[in-house]
């Protein structure tokens, strides 16, 4: 493997860095850099800024209206945007349902939703998990029965992220209740359709990004079927492999480790810096090593994809990246010391905005709330225990 970076890619990094510096609104970056959940309005505005430049579809080929960038340039772009504090693009739209529609959907679906995703005109919720069908999607029970030109949907989904501010939901349903994987189809549903009920789930950090979604005789047109009836399992596996690959969250790990390093370098109440404590410094150094290993594993996968071969490392990246993120978060909380006793809730919460945060260092807000949320990192996108089984079967042929 050649570890040299193409000079053209290095020049591209400088181009991206300059563009982000000149176009990212500072107030938008300030919120993101505190690791609070993005605001949908910020996400929409940033997507439109990128689309005006022709950069919103950074992982889409040119024939879809995207950039046509190599995987390496996609990696560079995401790295620079995240380190600068740009809000994320709509992962569900650009990296999940968008590629599924563009690869398997009808021409009408491509024409209807491709431009809307690129311009931030439509955001998506992922209707996969159910109370008794999380990592085992083959056991889902939500049904869709054909009735003329519509499907009538009944059932329940859970852990549906950000659907409260989305416009559409892509839903796995049983169109043949007697079959298992072969009976699953994927349909698109208007979030505001009659019969759709969204119930918020407030997480341990007192944030609302998760939801239960109930479908009570919800009608969606047959033209919103993605691909073929009964092929939803195939489309879901395609989508989930992409989700697990970006669950390595290399840019987030990189920025969080930089924040940890800065925290450890701050003087504490006893006048001693935490980074000068040998035990803490050794653990920090180990995280640095783990981060470099994750970076090169990611780059290896990207280079092999660029060369036309695909190493099936989605599950491996997901396990390593998610566990590293949790380790970094634990040390960030440790570095806060006494200030970790308060989690500094999201400032968009009215109760917080009325009374303000308690006294403390400027770097404290956001860390504990995010740490609490990231406890789910090893669960969402497919629990790590399931991913280890996939790794054993794929790499070890067990």
CATH superfamily of the largest domain: Butyryl-CoA Dehydrogenase, subunit A, domain 3
Number of strands: 7
Main β-sheet, in a few words?
4 strands, antiparallel
Q: Radius of gyration, rounded?
A: 22 Å
Return the domain count.
3
List low-pLDDT spans: none
The DSSP helix count reads 13
CA-CA gap between termini: 27 Å
**Overall pLDDT:** 88
CATH fold field value of the largest domain: Butyryl-CoA Dehydrogenase, subunit A, domain 3
- Secondary-structure-based class equals alpha+beta
CATH class placement of the largest domain: Mainly Alpha
Order of helices and strands: HHHHHHEEEEEEEHHHHHHH
CATH architecture annotation of the largest domain: Up-down Bundle
Structural commentary:
The protein has helices at residues 7-23, 26-33, 40-53, 71-84, 91-104, 107-118, 232-246, 250-264, 278-306, 314-336, 350-355, 367-373, 384-395; strands at 124-127, 143-147, 150-158, 168-174, 184-190, 196-202, 208-221. By secondary structure, the protein is of the alpha+beta class. The longest helix has 29 residues, at 278-306. It has 13 helices and 7 strands. The protein folds into 3 domains: 7-89, no CATH class; 124-229, Butyryl-CoA Dehydrogenase, subunit A, domain 2 (Beta Barrel), CATH 2.40.110; 247-395, Butyryl-CoA Dehydrogenase, subunit A, domain 3 (Up-down Bundle), CATH 1.20.140.10.
């Amino acid at each position: 493997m050649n570890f040299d970076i193409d000079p053209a890619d290095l020049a591209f990094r400088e181009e991206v860095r300059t563009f982000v510096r000149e176009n990212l609104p500072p107030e938008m970056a300030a919120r993101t850099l505190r690791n609070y959940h993005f605001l949908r309005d910020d996400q929409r505005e940033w997507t439109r800024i990128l689309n005006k430049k022709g950069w919103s579809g950074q992982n889409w080929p040119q024939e879809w209206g995207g950039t046509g960038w190599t995987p390496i340039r996609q990696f560079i772009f995401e790295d620079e945007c995240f380190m600068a504090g740009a809000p994320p693009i709509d992962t569900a739209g650009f990296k999940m349902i968008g590629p599924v529609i563009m690869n398997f959907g009808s021409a009408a679906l491509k024409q209807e939703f491709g431009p809307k995703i690129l311009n931030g005109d439509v955001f998506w919720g992922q209707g996969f998990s159910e109370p008794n069908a999380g990592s085992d999607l083959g056991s889902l029970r939500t049904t869709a029965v054909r009735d003329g030109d519509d499907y009538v949907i009944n059932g329940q989904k859970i852990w549906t992220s950000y659907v409260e501010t989305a416009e559409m939901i892509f839903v796995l349903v049983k169109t043949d209740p007697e079959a298992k994987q072969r009976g699953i189809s994927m349909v698109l549903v208007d979030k505001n359709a009659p019969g759709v009920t969204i119930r918020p789930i407030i997480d341990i950090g007192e944030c609302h990004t998760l939801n239960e979604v109930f479908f009570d005789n919800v009608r969606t047109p047959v033209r919103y079927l993605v691909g073929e009836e009964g092929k939803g399992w195939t489309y879901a596996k395609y989508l989930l492999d992409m989700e697990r690959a970006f669950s390595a969250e290399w840019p987030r790990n990189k920025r969080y480790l930089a924040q940890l390093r800065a925290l450890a370098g701050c003087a504490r109440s006893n006048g001693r810096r935490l980074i000068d404590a040998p035990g803490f410094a050794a653990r920090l150094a180990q995280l640095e090593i783990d981060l470099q290993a994750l970076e090169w594993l990611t780059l290896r996968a990207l280079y092999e994809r660029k060369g036309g071969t695909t190493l099936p490392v989605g599950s491996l990246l997901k396990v390593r990246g998610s566990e590293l993120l949790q380790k970094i978060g634990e040390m960030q909380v440790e570095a806060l010391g006494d200030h970790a006793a308060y989690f500094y809730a999201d400032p968009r919460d009215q109760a917080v905005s009325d009374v303000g945060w308690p006294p403390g260092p400027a770097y404290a807000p956001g860390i504990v709330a995010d740490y609490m949320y990231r406890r789910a990192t090893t669960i969402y996108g497919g629990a790590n225990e399931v991913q280890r089984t996939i790794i054993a079967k794929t790499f070890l042929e067990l």
